[in-house]
């Protein structure tokens, strides 16, 4: 959880720098301590200090309890969603075996989806408790967008579940280490989800971006229209909503890595070291193997975060009706089609 929180903080700097590079600007570089700027890395610290010291405003007609709870609910479920995503295989120390996964669940995928879905309550609470029509409209938009995205996410994942035969994300990550069609390709190509479920990968990623409520799906905020469900929030409460958005981005990147990019798998790396298809092998200590697996997972998540930022600063915003049409008439039917096609292929391949 500490890593995820730090990642969310660092993403505020990454977003500024990546957008600056794409727009040929210098980007955030003013925050300094004794003249030391470190490429603008002190800006997240300056942001935190600014939010903690700003006035904590609350509208006179607001529901004080729900207004205060709303940002906490959003951050809590964003953090809890990451708990079931495996970041490594098994660590063995002093005869003990430790699963590198905060919470080991046989229905891990359902758990993550449930946590992401519950996060929308924070947005609805914020919109309603603010006693502001624009905030309420933002909350309603967020709920509608999240429902359409969550349905598409759940349906797109079903193909992955059918291929690897489990709802446990650790088992799915292990399954992606097996060779893909060994009778045709031998042991050369690992069965990563992006190869076995390419359509599901595109659908999941699109719906996942919508679930984060970021551009091109940022209509719950609609900066040029309604400002959004957090229009009445200030100080650290506003900062918690911003943090929840970044946490959900990290969760989507983690799920994409675990389900489609092999998770913590490194090609040809097994429990005892590298075993290559051309009959060569390199033995490695257990701790080195674990370090390589955890490092591979972090690198893949970082690559996905870079890609998500690239989309966020490249595409224009969808209109509200366009986003709804894409979710219900585009992503969902294609996800159902992917389930049918996956079932037919599995019948042919496995008999």
Task: Write a structural description.
The chain is mostly helical and 351 residues long. The chain has helices at residues 2-22, 43-53, 64-81, 108-118, 120-129, 133-164, 169-175, 182-185, 193-196, 198-211, 235-260, 286-312, 320-350; strands at 90-93, 96-99, 269-270, 273-275, 281-283. Helix content is 62%, strand content 5%. The strands form 2 sheets. Strands 3-4-5 form a 3-stranded antiparallel beta sheet, with no helix packed on it. The two termini are 43 Å apart. It is built from 13 helices and 5 strands.
Relevant terms:
two-stranded antiparallel ribbon, 351 residues, 13 helices, 62% helix, three-stranded antiparallel sheet, mainly alpha, 5% strand, single chain
Low-confidence stretches: none
The proportion of residues forming helix, as a percent range, comes to 55-70%
What is the terminal-to-terminal distance?
Answer: 43 Å
Beta-strand content estimate: under 5%
How would a textbook summarize the main sheet? 3 strands, antiparallel
**Would you tell me the overall average pLDDT?**
90
How many strands appear in the DSSP assignment? 5
Secondary-structure element sequence? HHHEEHHHHHHHHEEEHH
Rg from Cα: 22 Å
Q: How many helical stretches?
A: 13
Strand order of the main beta sheet, please? 3-4-5
How would you classify the helix and strand content by structural class? Answer: mainly alpha
Shape: globular
């Amino acid at each position: 959880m500490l890593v995820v929180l730090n990642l969310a903080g660092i993403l505020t700097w990454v977003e500024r720098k990546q957008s600056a590079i794409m727009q040929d600007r210098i980007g955030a570089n003013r925050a300094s301590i004794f003249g030391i700027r470190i490429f603008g890395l002190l800006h997240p610290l300056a942001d935190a200090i600014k939010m903690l010291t700003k006035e904590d405003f609350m509208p006179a007609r607001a529901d004080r309890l729900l207004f205060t709870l709303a940002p906490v609910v959003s951050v809590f479920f964003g953090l809890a969603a990451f708990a079931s995503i495996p970041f490594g295989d098994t660590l063995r120390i002093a005869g003990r075996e430790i699963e590198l996964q905060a919470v080991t669940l046989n229905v891990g995928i359902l758990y993550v989806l449930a946590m992401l879905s519950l996060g929308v309550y924070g947005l609805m609470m914020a919109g309603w408790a603010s006693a502001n029509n624009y905030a309420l409209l933002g909350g309603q938009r967020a709920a509608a967008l999240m429902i359409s995205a969550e349905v598409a996410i759940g349906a797109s994942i079903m193909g992955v579940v059918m291929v690897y035969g489990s709802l446990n994300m650790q088992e799915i990550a292990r399954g992606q280490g097996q060779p893909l069609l060994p009778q045709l390709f031998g042991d050369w190509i690992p069965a990563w989800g992006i190869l076995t479920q390419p359509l599901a990968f595109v659908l999941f990623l699109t719906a996942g971006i919508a679930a984060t409520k970021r551009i091109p799906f940022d209509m719950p905020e609609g900066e040029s229209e309604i400002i959004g469900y957090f229009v009445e929030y200030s100080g650290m409460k506003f900062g918690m909503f911003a943090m929840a958005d970044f946490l959900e981005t990290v969760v989507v990147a983690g799920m994409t890595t675990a389900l489609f990019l092999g998770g913590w798998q490194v090609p040809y790396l097994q429990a005892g070291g590298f075993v290559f298809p051309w009959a060569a092998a390199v033995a490695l200590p257990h701790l080195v193997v674990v370090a390589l697996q955890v490092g591979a997972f972090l690198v893949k998540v970082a690559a996905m975060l870079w890609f998500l930022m690239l989309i966020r600063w490249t595409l224009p915003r969808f209109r509200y009706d366009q986003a709804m049409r894409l979710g219900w008439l585009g992503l969902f039917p294609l996800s159902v089609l992917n389930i049918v096609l996956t079932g037919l292929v599995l019948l042919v391949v496995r008999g």
